[in-house]
User: What shape does this take?
Amino acid sequence: MFRKRAVPCILVGLSALVAVMGMRSEGLAQAKRGGTIVEALGAEPTTLDIFKSGRRPELTILRLIIEPLVVPNEKLEPVPLLAKSWTVSKDQLTWTFTLNRDIKFHDGTQLNAGAVKFSIERHKKGIAAVLLTVVKQVDVVDDYTVAFKLEKPFPGLLDNLAQFAVGIVSPTAVQKAGNDWGSKVIVGTGPLKFKSWVSGDRITLERFDGYNHGPSFVSNKGPAYADEWVIRFLLEPTTLIAELTEGNVDLSNYIVERDATKVKNHPKTDLVMVPSTISVYLAINTSQKREPLNDLRVRQALTLAVNRDAVIKAVMAGIADPLYSPLPPNIKGYSKEAEEVGKRVNRYDPERAKQILDQAGWKLGKDGIREKDGKKLEINYIAFTIAGFKQMAEVTAPMLEAVGIKPKLEILEAGDLYQRVLATNFDLLSTSQVTSQALAVNDMVRGYHSKSIGTILQWAHYNNPEMDRLLDTAQFSLDAGERTKALVEAQKKAIEDVVVVPIANQKGLFGYKKTLGGVDSYFKHPLAYSQLDGYRALEIYKR
Amino acid sequence: MLKFIVHRVVLMVPVLLIVTVLASLLIYFTPGDPVRVMLGLRANEEAVAAIRAELGLDKPLYVRYFKWLGNIVRGNLGRSLQRNEDIGEMILARLPATLELTIFALCITAIIAIPIGVISAVKANTLVDNLCSFFSLFWVSMPGFWIALIALLFFSAKLHLFPISGRLGPIWTTQGLWSLLLPGLILGLRQVAIVSRLIRAGMLDVLNEEYIRTARGKGLSERTVIYRHALRNSMIPTVTIFGVQIPELLSVSVILEIVFAWPGLGMLLVDAVFKRDYTLVQSIVLIYSVLVIVVNVMVDTLYAYIDPRIKYE
Assistant: This one.
């Protein structure tokens, strides 16, 4: 009996095993080399000079070509990439990095300590200088060892170096290229190398066959699967979606919310929706000179008047999560504890908003606008011409009017708006912030430390010595526990002081053709949509 | 004739100078800092100041303008502030796409607008004329952006008659011509609507002239009256209209360039304005001005061929 039953059981078991192995080998076989992957961007980069590139279209491309010394893993801890190890001196003033000896630049030159010194010194004069302020000098110890000398101990150095914005380039290529650097010549160590840029049309990259050092969290260590990676600039979203659904474009992370369902439901395409590192909010000018929002009570009323769910529904087609903290939740150092405070401060409660304004002496006038000492409760509300920000301003303005605040809305082009912000000539701004490095401490320093006043991301012109102290501790204390505590307190303080009105944590939308493989593997990293998007070249392939 | 052309070319110089000065002033006084726009939100003041100095933006406007002008005289359009690319190369890379689109659209306009205008005038106030009026009114009333998107979705995405976007090659290649057809037709048809109405009005004026009555009185066939007497005499305003259409086509083409991802000069100009790329804006405006002036000289020259009474003294 046993034997009679055992034979079919063993056969079934064997066939199941064969089937599973077959599926597995089929899965692996699918990850094949070759072909051209076409990606669509909704904007054309201005330059591909890493030292001058700070915007999304530039970095989306540069992260495929240029890499930093270290890179954040899935837990957002820096892990080796171009540097294979590092040590810190006892006084914490010298960080010594040992480079991976097997890495070459796309131009065939060797990655060495000289290249790191050249790149970092140039970054110190460029747009990423803010990440390297504590770096006093970079010394070449030997060909493959480089020492960073700091002005003062800075435990966050590794996190800052784990940014593609401080990527390492080939000094030989930069010097040879002269004026062509950044437009005709871009040389790094990344999985794809630059081939050509047809202005207004496309950028073509090709596989770097010498790539062999994919980070620990990437399933393919290199080289990339596709022979070529073409990036087309399709400025009109309707055109982009038509090209994607008709199959001429393989993937795009420039899908707007209104098109999400179309891409998801189309038989040829699919959509990945992940939490992004974008926080959408209304920035308040808290400058002491600027009435009436220099009064905390008016700011509290402002945030209580805004119905986040309604804004998300009207402006983002319902595709976003309500935000209660100024920071997006999926970044290193984000505080859940502060979020709980945010849920209280930033809840939707227009009746409470009215009470607070009454208590602050702002009484309702006959025209529905509040007044105090003969002055109306009017605010200058500005927004970018970008559709989402403009719509958010238009949707929130009536919410403010409902509690008796009169917004005077102006829609401004970016250049104009930046000037208004720097000149503190506004009260409220409809905007968003893409986290700079997915590091809460950096975003807090950028947005709330008084030393950042004069840069655009300190929209609020917020100047509070207590906040400065907390953020200095969060950056420079040598005690990890103290740093964490200070960072949590700083987030709570920003929320309690109502420096911004948080609205939403936008979703990252990535549309792709179903004929592509490797998308699931690519999205295992929490920053795949943003800071780590360069590894799409290693993971994604054509079946 | 040669003297006339030389005279007009010499006159171009002050016109171009005025245009470039105006363009420089306009972009200069438009709020916005090119370095801030270039570096985005995260740059600190030191980085902004360093790059401003590197690009020479810390110098007064007149110094920058004369430096740019000096380069122009030497045949060098300089380098783009934002892209650090040679502007001459940038323009040369994108001018063919713009010229193809514009000239193709102009041909479509000429082929369709002239017969429609003539028929509408000859058959004035009949069903044919009303249909032509309806067609014109429809195209003029519909926003160009909307028409372009609808055409793209219907003819390209649904019926697959044309590529959805991009320029697949120069006009003389099959792929290139195929990709040009839809944006070119839309741009051309939009102008047909305007031009055919103007031709109709011009023809109606001519048809009421005494010499037309005389021609008819002499017993000439209606066909001869229309084509030998009326049409030829209405050609002068028609040629003028086509001359005027060039700047119109260049400006409308920007919308089509965006919708069809057509890598033309218009899109580059719009981008340069938004990014406050002063040198690039000045140079593209200069090239556009040269194009418009050259077309105007050609139109003036054509008058003599059309009407031998016109002399170029």
About this structure: Chain B touches chain A through 54 residues (CB under 8 Å). Residues 87-122 of chain B form the longest helix (36 residues). The radius of gyration of chain B is 24 Å.
